[in-house]
Amino acid sequence: CSMATKFYQHALALAFAVHEINQDPQILPNVTLGFHICDSYYDATMTYRSTLDLLFKSHQFSPNYKCDKQRNLIAVIGGLGAATSSHIAKLLDFYKIPQIIYGSFDLQELKTTHYSSFYSMVPKESHQNIGIVHLLQYFGWIWVGIFAVDNNSGQHFLQSLEPLLHENGICAAYTKRLPYIARLDKMEEHIEICYSIYKQLKNDIHVVIIYGESLTIAALRFILTLGGIENEKLYFKKVWIMTAQLDFMLTGLLRGWDLQIFHGAIAFAIHSEDTPNFSEFLKTINPHWNKGDRFIQVFWEQAFDCFFPESWEQTEVMGQCTGNEKLEDIFKPLFEMSMTGHSYSVYNAVHSVARALHDMCHLTGICTHHPKIHHTVLNAWEVFDLWFCDTKSILFVMSYYVVVSKIIFIYITPFSPLNKYLLLVQKVGKVDPNAPQGEQFTIDESMLVWHPGFKQVPPFSLCNERCRPGCRKKKKEDQPFCCYDCILCPDGEISNSTDMDDCFRCPEDHYPSNGRNTCIPKNITFLSYKDPLGISLSAIAVSFVLITILVLQIFIKHKDTPIVKANNRNLSYILLISLLLCFLSPFLFLGQPEEVRCLLRQPTFGILFSVAVSCVLAKTMIVSLAFLATKPGSWMNKWAGRRLPYSIAVSSCLIQASICIAWLATSPPFPDVDMHSAHEEIILQCNEGSVTMFYCVLSYMGFLALASFIVAFLVRKLPDRFNEAKFITFSMLAFCSVWISFVPTYLSATGKAMVAVEIFSILTSGASLLGCIFFPKCYIIVLRPGLNNRKHLLRQF
């Protein structure tokens, strides 16, 4: 017969624990523990028979009767699988004998059968499921296949795992049931199911979760070879995620299997500790170590591929067992020298029973030599009612180990081949739900060795390519939520990580990059002195200032000449000074907007230009009134005095000044920030406060200019050699054209351009006044001085 050689360590762990307890006088003085191991044969009938043997059989079998020499059964360590433990419980529950579970399966499955005598030595399966989710999320695997053994355990696993995957954004591409196989020689009975599973595994899903029992790995290996070894290597580049219920084991008959297909598998395992002296204990094991061990010869033959002379099963290729073979020479899929997780649970189960007996002994005195209590019989339910008061958590502390079964230690183990028949098992991480937040799942990715067939590591396991930053997910109709299209973010929005459900807008002081995957801080901008445009405008303004000063000097130097005296010399001085200040006013517009600068620049500009235009209007009125006053009997004589032009200039300026004062008093300009007009810039600007008042200033200045233009146009042909009306007409025409163009241009501009437009309009309109009015006079004064005399002035009269 064949056996799972790796499971023999479970029996040895039991023997080692009992031997260790019996050798320690501090645990059970005057009491010797014994044990009996029965095989369930993965068969319900044989499981019931073996359980009855434990309960009633001594030298003869008497069901439901206990004879004098009957053993005193305190506890039973149940089977590795849920089905075996359930069969045992149906009999033990009648006699209130507890069953300690060392197999890693969900106790909820057994609780549904209403058996109450279960005590688990392993972590909860729900914590393992959380660990699977953490593992998938860590590597970004959201499109996975699931295989679960076709029994109640597999059903419970799917019912708990699938909702958990959905809650965490992970999809099961398919869910298939593996045939439940208690014996490997029964595989042929499920050949059709195996072929359908084989076809399913040929898809391009790289991550597959496997839930099964002891022979599931062997069954899976059988399925993978259905297409031949070459096809197997071609198709099955998978990351196998195996649960703790699985044990990567082979029987002795399968020692020659090529195991490279499982390269890179990740398996969850029950936490185990290095128990002192266990490895040394295993080295003492030989075919004759214990006469009561009925499993040793079968194990030895399977493990070392040999036979004993008395064995009925012999082949020509098998050599005879010498008994000198060493367990440490067996490779791990057959047997391990370090204590496995399941063996560690068996070991702890024995110690938990011993500790319960220890406490009972101290309470009742059973362990003493007192004659009155020497023949007292221990009842199993009394022992465990005392000790296991909480069936959800078992905690006990010995001198050299601590076990807290309520805390989960699940270790992730990758398999990587040393050769195609041998696997190397390494511990790479753990899951501990009781650890601090952020430390519950740990993994050392550098220790993982992936299947060499993957082009990219870690491999992808997605329904489709991830949506890159700059795009968002759009669900595909009639597809799982893990399957989606990727669409570009709308204008003005970004996504800064992969697989975002929605795009979002940048903060006001940032703008989206061209790839719509990040927010870039906006540049703070204003028209500064260091800006090329600011430098150019400053240079032009300074040039006009110098020219104006030069003209003013020429006029002052030749103040007594007829051409300077004509049309009121003092008004010319006032006009030149106002133009000089107008050319300096652009410097209030340059630089970072500040409160004082914003308060002064528009009112200053409006008042200065009003003074200039008022002087032009006064000069034009002088020409008109002077001509009319020269006619005999004209009523204009009394209006043509010296005070008239000053009265016109002052009254015009006072009106503009009143408008500006009202503006500053009601809604003054202030520094402001414009984050929306420019896509990539934050504009520092002066908010005009009341736009209405700003346009009132411009409108009044336009009114003065228009009045000057009309009057100048009417008197442009008067017979006067030094008549300025012609030049004023041209200057006012240019002035009005500039400011009429200014309004739509100013409204359509933003940021620096808006300020530059206003500065340009100030300089252009000021230059038109300076050039048209004063350039002809300067030309005569400097280049044609002969024309600058009274004789020439009166020649036409």
TrEMBL record:
Gene Ontology MF: a single term: G protein-coupled receptor activity
Membrane topology recorded in Swiss-Prot or TrEMBL: Multi-pass membrane protein
One GO cellular component term: plasma membrane
UniProt entry tagged with the keyword Ribosomal protein: no
Membrane-spanning intervals of the chain: 394-412, 533-552, 573-592, 604-628, 644-665, 692-715, 727-747, 759-782
Domain G-protein coupled receptors family 3 profile: 533-792
Cited InterPro entries: ANF_lig-bd_rcpt, GPCR_3, GPCR_3_9-Cys_dom, GPCR_3_9-Cys_sf, GPCR_3_C, GPCR_3_Ca_sens_rcpt-rel, GPCR_3_CS, GPCR_3_vmron_rcpt_2
Keywords for the protein's UniProt record, in alphabetical order: Cell membrane, G-protein coupled receptor, Glycoprotein, Membrane, Receptor, Signal, Transducer, Transmembrane, Transmembrane helix
Subcellular localization, as worded in the UniProt entry: Cell membrane
The keyword Acyltransferase appears for this protein: no
CDD domains from the UniProt entry: 7tmC_V2R_pheromone
Pfam families to which the protein is assigned, alphabetical: 7tm_3, ANF_receptor, NCD3G
SUPFAM superfamilies: Periplasmic binding protein-like I
Matches recorded under Gene3D superfamilies: 3.40.50.2300, GPCR, family 3, nine cysteines domain
PANTHER family registered for this protein in UniProt: CALCIUM-SENSING RECEPTOR-RELATED, G-PROTEIN COUPLED RECEPTORS FAMILY 3 PROFILE DOMAIN-CONTAINING PROTEIN
Family: Belongs to the G-protein coupled receptor 3 family.
Protein name per UniProt: G-protein coupled receptors family 3 profile domain-containing protein
Species of the source: Anolis carolinensis (Green anole)
